[in-house]
C-alpha cells in the first residue's frame, strides 16, 4: 500500500490541497491517516476515491451532491461516465485515472471502448493525442514519473499495432509507397504507428523502420525501396543537432523523394519553404493529406 502526501494528491488529481482540507472538514469525505510523527497521508484506496470524485466534479456533479453518495454509488456513476465515449473530456480523464493507478485492465477498457465507438482516426485525434499532450505536461511538472508515461504509451502503441494487423488490405488505384522512420534519438512511436495504420487503412504501402534509424541506413533503404514519400515525426529537441540541420540531413539521404514532417517540433516552430517538404502541424492535416492521395495525384 503506497503512501501519498496531500501535495501528492493535489498533483495527481488536480484538486487543491486547501480544497481537500475544506472537503474533509465540511463533508467528512476522508479521515487521513497519520504517521508516527503526526504527518497526514493517504493510501491507494483514498487516491482512487479522489480520482473518482475529480471525474464526477469535472463532469458537472456538485461536491455537495457527491458528498452524500456512498462508494458504490460513486463507482457506478463513474462507470457510466466511462461508457460515454463521445464525451472527450471525460475519456481523457478516465485514461489519466487509469494511468495514475497503473490499472492495466481499466486502461484497456477505456481505450478499447473509445476506439470501438469512435473509430481509430477519431479516437486518436480527439482523445488519444489530447491525452498524450496531458501526459507530457504532467511529466514535465512532476505530477507523474517516467513509469506512468511509459505505461500509457506502451498501452496505446500495443492497441494501434494490434488494430493495424487486424486491418484487411484496402484497394486503392492511387496507392503510394511510404517509408516511415524516426531519426536518431527519437523514440516516441505513437504518431509513427498511427501513420502506418492510416496509410494501410487507405490502401497505401508503408515500410515501417521504427525508432532511432541511422541516417546512412535510411539512404540505402530509400535507394532500394524507391518510395513515393518519406514520413517522420520529430518530437524531442535534439541536443546534438539543430532542427533545421536535422531536416537538411534527412533531405540529403532521401534525395528528391518528398519528405513529410510531423510532430511537436514541427507544430511549435516556423519554417521557410523547403522543396519537396511538407510540414504537418497537426494530426488532422496528415489525415487530410492521406485522404487527398486517395482521390487525386498528390501535388
UniProtKB/TrEMBL annotation:
SMART domains: HTH_MERR. Keywords: DNA-binding, Repressor, Transcription, Transcription regulation. The keyword Transcription applies. CDD domains: HTH_MlrA-CarA. The keyword DNA-binding applies. Residues 3-72 form the HTH merR-type domain. This is MerR family transcriptional regulator.
Amino acid at each position: 500500500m503506497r503512501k501519498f502526501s496531500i501535495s501528492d494528491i493535489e498533483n495527481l488529481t488536480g484538486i487543491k490541497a486547501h480544497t481537500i482540507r475544506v472537503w474533509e472538514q465540511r463533508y467528512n469525505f476522508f479521515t487521513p491517516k497519520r504517521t508516527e510523527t503526526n504527518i497526514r497521508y493517504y493510501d491507494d484506496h483514498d487516491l482512487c476515491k479522489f480520482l473518482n470524485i475529480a471525474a464526477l466534479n469535472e463532469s458537472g456533479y456538485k461536491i455537495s451532491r457527491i458528498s452524500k453518495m456512498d462508494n458504490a454509488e460513486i463507482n457506478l456513476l463513474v462507470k457510466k461516465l466511462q461508457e460515454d465515449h463521445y464525451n472527450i473530456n471525460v475519456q481523457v480523464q478516465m485514461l489519466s485515472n487509469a494511468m495514475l493507478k497503473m490499472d492495466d485492465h481499466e486502461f484497456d477498457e477505456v481505450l478499447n471502448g473509445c476506439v470501438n465507438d469512435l473509430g481509430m482516426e477519431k479516437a486518436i485525434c480527439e482523445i488519444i493525442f489530447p491525452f498524450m499532450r496531458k501526459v507530457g505536461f504532467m511529466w514535465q511538472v512532476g505530477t507523474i514519473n517516467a513509469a506512468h508515461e511509459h505505461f500509457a504509451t506502451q498501452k496505446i502503441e500495443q492497441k494501434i499495432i494490434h488494430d493495424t494487423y487486424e486491418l484487411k488490405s484496402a484497394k486503392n488505384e492511387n496507392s503510394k509507397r511510404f517509408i516511415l522512420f524516426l531519426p536518431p534519438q527519437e523514440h516516441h512511436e505513437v504518431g509513427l504507428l498511427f501513420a502506418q495504420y492510416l496509410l494501410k487503412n487507405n490502401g497505401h504501402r508503408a515500410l515501417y523502420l521504427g525508432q532511432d534509424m541511422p541516417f546512412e541506413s535510411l539512404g540505402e533503404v530509400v535507394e532500394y525501396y524507391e518510395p513515393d514519400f518519406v514520413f517522420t515525426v520529430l518530437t524531442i529537441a535534439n541536443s546534438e543537432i539543430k532542427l533545421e540541420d536535422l531536416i537538411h540531413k534527412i533531405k540529403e539521404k532521401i534525395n528528391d523523394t518528398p519528405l513529410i514532417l510531423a510532430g511537436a517540433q514541427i507544430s511549435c516552430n516556423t519554417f521557410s519553404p523547403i522543396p519537396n517538404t511538407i510540414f504537418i502541424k497537426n494530426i488532422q492535416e496528415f489525415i487530410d493529406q492521406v485522404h487527398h492521395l486517395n482521390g487525386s495525384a498528390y501535388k
